[in-house]
Structures are given as structure tokens and as C-alpha cells.
Amino acid sequence: MQIVIIGSGNVAYHLAKAFTQKNIPLAQLFGRNEEDLSNISQELSIPFSTDTLEDADLYIICVSDSSVENVSKLIAKKDCLVTHTSGSLSKEILVGEYRKSSFYPLQTFSKSKELDYSKIPFFIETENTEDQKLLTELASQISENVMESSHEKRKYIHLTAVFACNFVNHLFSRAKEISDAQEIPFDYFLPLIDETVKKIHEIEPKSAQTGPAVRNDKRVLELHEQLLTNESLEIYKTMNHSIKKMYDLE
Q1: pLDDT tens digit string along 29-80?
Q2: Which of 119, 149, 179 is the last residue of a domain?
Q3: How many independent structural domains does the chain possess?
Q4: Angle formed by the axes of helices 10-21 and 34-44, to 10°?
Q5: Last residue of a domain, one of 149, 173, 203
Q6: 134 and 86 in a common domain
Q7: In the predicted model, what is the mean pLDDT of residues 181-202?
Q8: What pLDDT score was predicted for residue 250?
Q9: Are strands 3-6 and 146-148 parallel, antiparallel or unpaired?
Q10: Cβ-contact 149, 157 below 8 angstroms
Q11: From CA 199, how far away is CA 194, in angstroms rounded?
């Protein structure tokens, strides 16, 4: 089976790397960013192009959600399967006379970070059972955790991921702003962050909650509010309000 990955960003890189590690041949990397494509090509020994799209049986589109539709129009072939890796888009966003599907890996990807691909959940949706079997078998060569998922369910998977990953990472960034402003090394907080994440492997997140809001410690809450300004103050108030509401403390 001829496979082409379209894109040169984080998802494209890691999928290409995962396939390469499992000796799944890739016919081509295709995209606009020649420098990024060249870097991936040199590392993984995969041919690339910025102008000629190779003939393939499967095209995997790994681009931003806003670009998926336009990129899908580049594929003129009819007798092929095209899939995207978005968590929020339906397979119907793809424009063409080919077979449509989605191939969503639930993970945060950065090129500089090594990943254990076998632990990444993959959620697959296709138009027919044959393509479902094909993509499931492909993903199963990479991951131990492959599931069928409708677009309706996948929307909520992606939304949960935003809360559990993107929002949490933003809070890390805000926390580092505070520590940097006081010349406190952020490394001091890494054991705390590690333990917080480790706990929810064993304890329900709601049961693991600690801090002044869940204790309804008004003195500490007021003190903290005096130390904060602008957006950080608004985030602090919003988070504490949400925590107290969850525990019926308001």
C-alpha cells in the first residue's frame, strides 16, 4: 500500500517517525514548508516534494484544522482513501470523490519530545467496514489502543483533551510568569506538577483536589488575590469559583 503524509508539522513528523519505526513504508512527504520537509526527510529517509503529489492508496492529511479542506482539494485521485488527523473536524470536511475518513491520535505533539507511540489512543471513523479494518490494522501496528469513534463522540474527546492538556499547560505558563517575576526557579515546582499528574492515575481527579479553594480558606484566597493583577487575577478567581461550586462551597 502506497502511503503519503501531507504536512510538515508536529503531527506529520511523529506519524512519519512512528511508521518508520515499525517499518511501514511511506511513499512521500508532501507540503509547503520545504525546510521542515527536508529536515524530516533527512532524519527518516522519506522522499518529499512541495509541488508534485505522489500517486498513493492512502493520503494522511496532517495540517491545521483551518487548512484541511483546502489541502484535501489537492487530491484528484478517485480510487483512494483520504484521512485527516483532526479531533474536531468531520470526515465530510474532505472535498473529493475519494473515500473519506478520520485518523485521530489523542496526544500532544512536539518535534523535540520523544513519545511512546504504543500508548497513544487512535480514534478512527470511515465510510465503510473495509476502510475501518484497513486503518485499524495500520494504527494497530503503531499503538496498543485503537478504537472506532463517530465524529459526535470525537468532538467531545477533543474538547476533553483541550481541558486536560491545553488549558493545564496554559496554567503552567501563567505559573511560570509568577515565579519568574519573583526570581523563583520554576524547577522547584516540577516535583509538585509530577505528583499532581501521577495522582490522577490512581485517584479520581475530584477526590485528588487540594488547595485553599476546596478548603474554603478565605484568608489565603484574599491574600492571593492581593498579589495578582489583570488576567492572572481573573483566572485565579474563575478557577476558585469553579472549584468551590464543584464542592458546593458557594
Answers
A1: 999 999 999 999 999 999 999 999 999 999 999 999 999 999 999 999 999 9
A2: 149
A3: 2
A4: 20
A5: 149
A6: yes
A7: 97
A8: 76
A9: unpaired
A10: yes
A11: 9
Q: How far is CA 163 from CA 98, 138, 159, in A?
A: 34, 29, 7
Length of the chain in terms of residues written: 250
Give me the chain's average pLDDT, please.
97
Spell out the long-range contacts of 176-182 with Cβ–Cβ below 8 A and sequence spacing 24 or more. Answer: 177/232, 178/232
Helices 230-246, 218-227: crossing angle, 10 deg rounding: 160
pLDDT digits (tens, 9 = 90+) for 123-139: 999 999 999 999 999 99
Q: Using 50, 70 and 90 to split pLDDT, how confident is the model at 165?
A: very high
- DSSP single-letter state for residue 143: -
Could you identify the residue written with the cell 504504543?
Answer: 118
Q: Which domain holds residue 19?
A: 3-149
Query: In which element (H, E) is residue 110 found?
Result: none
- The one-character DSSP state at 55 is P
Quote the cell numbers at residue 33. 514548508
Say if residue 145 is in the same domain as residue 162.
no
User: How much is the pTM?
Assistant: 0.92
**Cell reading at 37:** 520537509
Residue with grid cell 469513534, as numbered in its chain: 149
Angle between helices 230-246 and 168-181 (to 10 degrees): 130
**Whole-number Å distance between alpha carbons of 200 and 228:** 28
Task: Read off the C-alpha cell for 23.
Answer: 517499518
pLDDT digits (tens, 9 = 90+) for 69-119: 999 999 999 999 999 999 999 999 999 999 999 999 999 999 999 999 999
Spatial CB neighbours of 22, under 8 Å, sequence gap ≥ 6: 141, 142
